[in-house]
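Aim 2 progress update. The chain analyzed this quarter is reproduced below.
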Amino acid sequence: MISKKLKKEILDFRKDRDWEKFHKPKDLAVSLVLEAAELLENFQWKSDQEVSEMIKGKALKRIEDEIADIAMYLTYLTHDLNIDLEDVMTRKLETNKEKYPADKVRGSAKKYTDY
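Predicted structure tokens:
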């Protein structure tokens, strides 16, 4: 998770630019998906070998930038909806542990409904 200090800086950045009025939950969710698509674009049509080479070079900076954009939009959205990201991730992890018991799914990529 990000530090309280960084979260404050991210929120202050938005506030100083008076962008809060544009950041409705729907628009933040759309922005998250768009940034995730920009991240994915870095990997599109590349083989595993090409990806390995790519992340050793300058492309890693582009990937890092897209991940940072995703994290910032997620920070705005969780803040605005008063969601504690650590709490909801902990809760979801517990749900996933029940849906995907390690002894049943180890080494399998099947969905929980298929085993």
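The helical segments are 4-16, 25-41, 48-54, 59-80, 85-99, 102-105. The radius of gyration is 18 Å. These observations will guide the mutagenesis experiments scheduled for the next reporting period.
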